[in-house]
Structures are given as structure tokens and as C-alpha cells.
Design brief:
This protein has eight helices and nine strands. The chain has 267 residues and is of the alpha+beta class.
Length: 267
Amino acid sequence: MAVSKPALSLSALAFAALFGGGIYLYMNLNSIAKPIIENLASDALGVEVSIGDLDINLSEKKAAVKSVKIENVEGFQSNHILTVSSASVNLKTLEAGLVSIGTIAVDDINMHLDITEKGTNAQTLQKQIGERAAMKQKNAGTDDKTNATSDSKSSTKVMIDQIKLGKITLNTNSPFIKTLKPISIEGTQINKIGVSENGVTIEKATKQITSQLLSYVNKQASKEGLYKGVAESVLKEIGTKSLNSETKGKLEEFKNEASEKLKGLFN
């Protein structure tokens, strides 16, 4: 999917509206910023991202987002890999080239986990994000050598103190399990994205966020036995274990403990 690069970054837009006396920008900020954010997110993920509604309050440094939909990776069953009903954003600072965010609180999260013999949609998305981030970094490095005003120096950077994720409803499709009902898993918190680096590119921030989120979801899915039948090589790649592997490990531990106790009886 080809995603066009926004002509004006979000931070530059907000900076102009706040300090440039841009009345038109201020009055129309939501309608102007919405497609920019959608394009930035889509470009970082490599799949289409849509926002139903966006309300930015610059005077209070807050934003409210509704109905976020992230399209599924090509080749998988579900229409979307993730949908979010609402999210609130507390902005700390808005400068040209930098967006610093305090807290993002996300509610009513629905994730669709599609499992196949070759892997999962979440695993494929994570790979895709990593590849796109690496390509962006490589291109930025090339630009630095040839152009003093390269995109790497002018692109928007972000810092996020914390992302609070509410309960996640996990919907799973798997050829290995006949009947699967949606399950609810506890939310989690992701901290300090780009803070130690004093801001990172949107691609790097996306990679850090999705890596932590998908790692958490994978662990919860494994506990629920949703990866039953998936090849060990795939499970190793996504950083989890099958139920059989965990059971074998516990049995081995029990056997070793019993053996040591028996030795102790005859010594």
C-alpha cells in the first residue's frame, strides 16, 4: 500500500497554529490534522489507519480520538488487526519538530489474532514495522551524506511518558482450534517511549510501542492455549512457547526434583 508523505508535519502544524497567528489553521486544525496523523500512522505501520473523529484542544493541550481502525496485514482473514473506540491524549509540549506527550489512555480495544501454519498477523505486522523503520533509518543516513537539510533533521520526533491500555478483547481465528470465543485480557502500560533519546522518529516510536504490546498479547494468548498446533519455530520467533513445551518443561523439573529427593533417602 502506497502512503503519501504529509507535506506538513503535525508538530509544525500545531506550532503554526499556536504561535504563528494562523486563525485559519486554528479554526480548522482538526480537519487538517486528521489526515496528517492517519498518513503518518499508516506510513509507519505499512497498513491503512483511519480515525473516525479527532478533537484537539491546543489551549488545554489535550486531544480526544474516536474510532481508530488499523487494517489487517495482507493475506490474513480479519478486516482489521486492531480497533479502538476512544483514546485521550495529554500533550506536554508542542514544538517545531517535536511532540512531547504525557499520557495516552486507550479504552475498548479489540484485537483480531489470525493464526496460520506459517505464523500470525501480529507477527507479520511486527516484522513489517521493523523493516520499514530500518529502511527509513537507512534512507535518512543516505540523505545526511548528500543533503544538509535531510528529512531526518526535519521530520517530526515524539516522546511519550506512558500509554495506559484498558482491557483488550482478543478475537482469534485458528485452523487448529474448532471453537474459539473472544477472551478478555487485562490491560497493560507502556512507559517512556523515546524519552531517554529526547525524542525518536515516528517509525521508531511505532516499533517500540507495537513490540511491547504484541509481546504482552502473545504471552496472554499462550496462557490461554491459543497457539495450540502452531509450529515450534513460529512460537520461538514470536517469543512464546506452546502448552506442550511448557508442560514438558514442568515435568522435567518435577522428575529432576524427585530424583534428587530419592538420592537423599539413600545417602
